[in-house]
Amino acid sequence: MKNLPPTYVEGFHDLEAVKKMEYRTLGRTGLQVSKLSFGGGPLGCHYGKYDENEAIETIRHAIRQGINYIDTAPWYGQGQSEATLGKALKGIPREAYYIATKIGRYELDFENMFNFTAEKTRKSFKRSLELLGLDYVDIIQVHDIEFAPSLNMIITQTLPELSRQVSEGKAKQIGITGYPVSILKECIDLSNIKISCILSYSRFTLIDDTLEHYIPFFKERNIGIICASAPCMGLLTNHGPPEWHPASEDTKKKCSEAAEYCKDHNVELGKLAAWYSMQCKDIDTSLIGIQNMRDLQCNLQVVYEGINDDEKKLLEEIKEKFLSKIKDKHWEGVELKKYWNAMNK
Q: What is the chain's percent helix, strand, coil content, to nearest 5?
């Protein structure tokens, strides 16, 4: 019999589904995480309204099917995602899953959007545990470190406070997240606090391979790699991105054309995007935002079955016809500039 992950709970999990799921070690954390992990971003306010009851059932079903890594943050609906997860996790054996939340990014208005001080970190993390209904999380992450007034603040205030939380047993490991992959590397190089994993989003996709260039650095240091948002925060989906998406208009147009081409062939672009990202063996888990049962089933199908020959052909066609023509492959610096312009007024 295939070795089952440490999170397998007899009588709770769907044994056959767990057997089909692939598990990888998340760097020095030692956690055996599922190839597909559950992103709680869409359970906030950034991706439209959702049915909470369906979301709760989706979360529970995902864990039963062998998805054992869950990611959330206060930023996702100012605690809404954490609260929804807290409701879903009631009654589920704690040993059946790993969960991560974050500190640092909070409100929608620029004035209160970021706060990396030790005091705010302490208060925020306490509230996160309360909303989740948990005594501890497996990983506590600093959210979008590039927005801190300086990296020195992260290193001298935020990370030491998280280290204290770990010593008190409220978290097991520390991680960092951010859009520029270079700052994740720099933070690891400079910090004397042990950082166990990084979360990089929208940087190993059909349009941007930036993360790939940094993988050797992370692997050499046994840093776990969480690759989030293969569909590029909705950009690479048939539905398209939310209005706030920071990609250039030309990039959005090219991706929209690719999506229309996929619709004409009755294929979901997001499925192709997820499959592409999951082909990298050096990525420990692919974190994809899931809001409902349809999202879950689509992504599980990619894990279990991959994509067929016709879909592979279609993928090559959209890459050649549309995605290869994209000039602005990422939006690094765009949100940062907007934020500091607003703060300096």
A: 45, 15, 40
What pLDDT is attached to residue 311?
Answer: 98
- Scored b (16 or more CB within 10 A) or e, 150-165 reads eeeebbebbbebbbeb
* DSSP H stretches of helix in the chain: 15-20, 52-64, 80-89, 118-132, 151-153, 159-167, 181-190, 215-220, 249-264, 269-278, 293-305, 309-321, 334-343
The pLDDT score that the predictor gives to residue 303 is 97
Q: Is 76 a catalytic residue?
A: yes
Query: The tokens of 128 are what?
Result: 């996160």
End-to-end CA distance of the chain: 63
* Three-class SS state of 150: coil
Domain ranges of the chain: 15-343
Residue 293: HSE in the Cβ half-sphere, 13 Å Cα cutoff: 7
pTM of the predicted model, to two decimals?
0.97
Q: What pLDDT does residue 32 have?
A: 98
Q: Which CATH architecture has domain 15-343?
A: Alpha-Beta Barrel (3.20)
Give the pLDDT confidence score for residue 2 in this predicted structure: 65
Q: What is the pLDDT of residue 345?
A: 86
With 0-12 / 13-18 / 19 or more C-beta atoms within 10 angstroms meaning exposed / middle / buried, residue 309 is exposed
Give pLDDT tens digits for 187-218: 999 999 999 999 999 999 999 999 999 999 99
Q: Residue for token digits 């497996």?
A: 138
Low-confidence ranges of the chain (pLDDT < 70): 1-2
Tell me if residue 141 falls in helix, strand or coil: strand
Which of 76, 179, 201, 276 is labelled catalytic?
A: 76
Measured N-to-C along each axis, helices 159-167 and 118-132 cross at an angle, to the nearest 10 degrees, of 50
Please tell me the distance from the alpha carbon of residue 187 to that of residue 191, in angstroms, as a whole number. Answer: 6
- Burial class, 121, CB count within 10 angstroms (exposed 0-12 / middle 13-18 / buried 19+): buried
Which tokens go with 7? Answer: 């999170």
